[in-house]
Amino acid sequence: MQRMARLAIILMLVLHFEANIHGEIVYTRPGENASLPCVGRSFSDPTCSNVAWLFNRYSTLPDVWIDFIGRSLDSDCSLVVKNVSAEDVGLYKCGGSEEVYLNLLTISPSPLDADPMRDGEVKLKCSLFRHSTLGFCQKGTIPWVDETGTVLLDEDVGYHFHGQEKCVSSLTVRQQSGHNRKYTCRFEQHSGTKIQSDYTPDFLGGNQTEISNPDNITDVPHSYAMWAVRIAGVVVIIVSAVLIIKRICNTNCILKDKNKFRNDEYIEYDNGGVRLANARWP
């Protein structure tokens, strides 16, 4: 009973904290373009010449003026952030007062050089990057679901859910027979999905992976094919070099024999006899 009471108090505090957050929250994924609205702009300035944007990455750092490198203003003075990355996450202020939060949802293998084809499994980390004033994410707000929409909990065939720590949710997926499956990470808040991202592990080439091949043609991995071409090229070069050397050697040998016995050249023997080089032997 006391535990339920504590959870209720925590939930009330969180809702109160979020209610005191002013401004809009924009969600995006890596590489996308994000448009941050400037609601408080003056409509008497249609050219947006008097509109200034400030940026704050951490609450402990001062605001900085935006230099517009990789960014631009839209016709309604909205700030367009192109090719969003983790460096762009933070608090934006239009005109110094209107606040807009830019959040980023990413999925990455852990470690970054993990090879599903080699290891037979891969650990995925779904991370929500956001400004520090928004606090940590509540437990259960970043679930994983499969291609059927089923929430993945604990451990089952083909996956192991490690849980959520702050704003990071971890899931290990294993190689299974059949086609590759799709895993989706979501950020849910106030009974709604704010943003989601999909991930399909590349298990192609493994012994347990079945590939649709109606003609029963063996599919050779690209890397093996490239190595075969390289080895064949080396063999051709070696054979060609041997044939050229052999031909040069034969030519030199013939010339040497001809020069050894030129016409009208006398050969002197130990017994004192002398014969022409072009004379026939008896």
Automatic annotation (TrEMBL):
GO terms for molecular function: MHC class II protein binding; protein tyrosine kinase binding. It comes from the Eukaryota. Residues 31-94 form the Ig-like domain. Residues 1-23 form the signal peptide. GO terms for cellular component: external side of plasma membrane; membrane raft. The chain crosses the membrane at residues 224-245. GO terms for biological process: interleukin-15-mediated signaling pathway; positive regulation of ERK1 and ERK2 cascade; T cell activation. SUPFAM superfamilies: Immunoglobulin. Keywords: Membrane, Signal, Transmembrane, Transmembrane helix. InterPro entries: Ig-like_dom, Ig-like_dom_sf, Ig-like_fold. This is Ig-like domain-containing protein.
